[in-house]
Input
Amino acid sequence: MKTKQAVGLIPLLDNVSQNLFRHRETGVYFGIKKVGGTRLVHSLETKDRITANGRLRDWLDELQKTDPANLDLNLAMLGKRFLAARSAKSAATRGHEKTMWEAFRRTFPRPMETLVVRVLPSDVETWLAKIKNTRAKRASTFNRWRLFARQLFEVFAADAKIASPFIDRKIPAAKKERVERPIPSEAEFVRIIAEIRTPSWKHVKGTRGGQRAMHQPESADFAEFLGRAGVGQAEAAPLQWEDVGSRDIRFTRQKTGKEFAVLITPDLRSLLDRRRKAAGGAKASGKVFKVANVKRALTNALLRLGLRHFSQRNLRSFKIVAMLDAGLDPKFVSAQQGHSDGGVLIMNTYSEVIRRNQHAYEDEQMKRFAAASGFGKVVPFRAAKA
Output
């Protein structure tokens, strides 16, 4: 429903009956009612008189519940009321919403002194369109701004008991785009690590050729560890030798603070043995790695090799895909990532790999069934004796 204070619409409306008006150009019916000193105009969204009469009665009934005091609420006051109502949320959420409110205050097409009742649905649509073009290129980001706008105006709608200028069907949520996850092959991974360790130094526009010689082995080992252990940069950077056992490595998920363990595979063990020996053997202590980020080294190596862009996160995915390709249960792979959802996230994120493996698994099982049962054997036809 669209309810707003009368601005320039009144001259185009012809009075049909009490509180009922008809737009002389479009034929759409409107309801007009003065509440708390404010004249409200409400589109009944129909050209049919009978339908308009019914919708007018419903609207007038709603207005009986309207709190006139809240009709004097302006946008600046609305922002303060909204932020106060979110005080029970986490500090991170409150900080994020405060930032969004500041952006709203600076960029909304109406001054903050504007009464909220005067805000039109088109104002909200215009603002969100601007946000989509400047701040929210990704669907998930736009949907978060859209949610903010809806929650903001719902505060007014609930307090004033009047329709919100945010209309869901007018501003549909953006469809999430298909995320492409470039993951290096084994051959590409080996080339990347070798290039970080010993740069080719050939000139490529946009790169300085490589790092200082003293940092090359460290960066190469760190990048290799991300791929061989299948962990993120945030988990690998603080790793201590005390966390490296004979069978597994203990990590702490930085986002959740939850501990998890990753089994040491042969390729990972050779890397760890080499680093442990250089760090003092059995007496090694402190951090396993001297670097905490290889973004620049990785980017420059890819430029020199002429490969597509891979991020540090893609190196982590390299191990995940390798395990899935080997036929490991997604639940086990999920546990190796510190997930506690039984493999749901892994199966959703790497669905194509799992689907391919699932088809191969089903084919193999059917072959075994056919061989064991005899159903797969060709039985020659024998004609019945006359």
